[in-house]
Design brief:
alpha/beta; TIM Barrel; 17 helices; 8 strands; binds adenine; binds zinc ion
Length: about 350
């Protein structure tokens, strides 16, 4: 469903941050393990008797200085090692969902990396039970719609991904789709052609990280070989005019993560981020937080900092929010209802 563009009134620069915070939005790119704040890492380490190689929350936070994706992933996987019990997965997801709801996120489609946990002996069931319970609680207590997307780690083999899918089979009623994440360079999408084909047969939604650090060729193969419905990041697509036309014509959403791109040195500063270029080319670009505990901000921080740095306007804000609902995996009636709520908030700012 294409959401008909709406012309919105200009909003004074000093009121734009309030509009960005108040507007309803969907988050389509959040790794739940990347929402694990240092305070919670230390609390879970104590609770579970796990030792971590940092003396304090401050020392851990000070280590969050990244030069590229891999330098982040090394510390991200180390942080996840404190997660052992169903309650741990619940508490992590609950903390994120409270923050998302406070940012007026109405819908969130949450990535999780089961191989990070099953590889340490944590059963798939423990992971899914804890995350899913938080999603159910959040609907009841916070009014936020949350669903789970299982991501395969691309630095591991396709055989490993198949084994993970097998472990997930009893839980597929609580997983809406699969994705592909971790170290991009050297691990092109086509490495996972067979497992994605199987997931497609199973009726799962398909997404993949592509064009974060990797070349436009990885975006092409995510589309043409994996047959994904959305591209996570995809910012490198701007280097390939034919790819930009394809993404615009097929209305393939890009789940862009500006603060992540800044912290992982994909762009030298936020002012040089290409979000405006993507929007101006008619792409269904969205704003997301990726790993908010590591990159310095949840959804609203991503919006306010990016708008301040790039000069995007209220019209762009409406488009980004509408794109997030269009790109979400909900039925058309639900998309319409979300956009009605979006329009109502814009009306109060007119
Ligand atoms: N896993 C968590 N965050 C990621 C990112 N930004 N890119 C790839 N894999 C990830
Ligand atoms: Zn990501």
């Amino acid at each position: 469903m294409i959401i008909t563009p709406r012309k919105v009134r200009e909003v004074a620069a000093d009121r734009l941050p309030a509009l960005l915070r108040a507007m309803p939005k969907a988050e389509l790119h959040i790794h739940i393990e990347g929402s694990l704040e240092p305070e919670l890492i230390f609390a879970l380490a104590r609770r579970n008797g796990v030792t971590i190689p940092y003396a304090s929350v401050e020392e851990l936070r000070a280590a969050y200085a990244f030069s590229n994706l891999q330098s982040f992933l090394d510390i991200y996987y180390a942080g996840a090692s404190v997660l052992l019990k169903e309650q741990d997965f619940h508490d992590m997801a609950w903390a994120y969902l409270e923050r998302a709801a406070a940012d007026n996120v109405l819908r969130t489609e949450i990535f999780f990396d089961p191989q990070t946990h099953t590889e340490r002996g944590v059963p798939m069931k423990t992971v899914v039970d804890g995350l899913h319970r938080a999603c159910v609680d959040a609907k009841a207590k916070l009014g936020i719609d949350a669903e789970l997307i299982l991501c395969f780690l691309r630095h591991l083999s396709e055989e490993d991904a198949f084994a993970t899918l097998e472990q997930a089979m009893p839980h597929l009623d609580r997983i809406i789709g699969v994705g592909l994440d971790s170290s991009e360079l050297g691990h092109p999408p086509e490495k996972f052609a067979r497992v994605f084909a199987r997931c497609r047969e199973l009726g799962l939604h398909l997404v993949a990280h592509a064009g974060e650090e990797g070349p436009p060729a990885y975006v092409w193969s995510a589309l043409d070989v994996l047959k994904v419905e959305r591209i996570d990041h995809g910012v490198q697509s701007a280097k390939d005019p034919a790819l930009m036309r394809r993404l615009a014509e097929d209305r393939i959403p890009l789940t862009v993560c500006p603060l992540s791109n800044l912290k992982l040195c994909v762009f030298p500063d936020l002012g040089q981020h290409n979000l405006r270029t993507l929007l101006d080319a008619g792409l269904v670009a969205t704003v997301n937080s990726d790993d908010p505990a590591y990159f310095g901000g949840y959804m609203n921080q991503n919006f306010t900092e990016t708008f301040a740095a790039t000069g995007l306007t209220a019209q762009h804000a409406w488009q980004l929010a509408a794109n997030s609902f269009e790109g979400s995996f909900v039925e058309e009636a639900a998309k319409r209802a979300y956009v009605d709520r979006l329009n109502a908030v814009f009306d109060t700012f007119a």
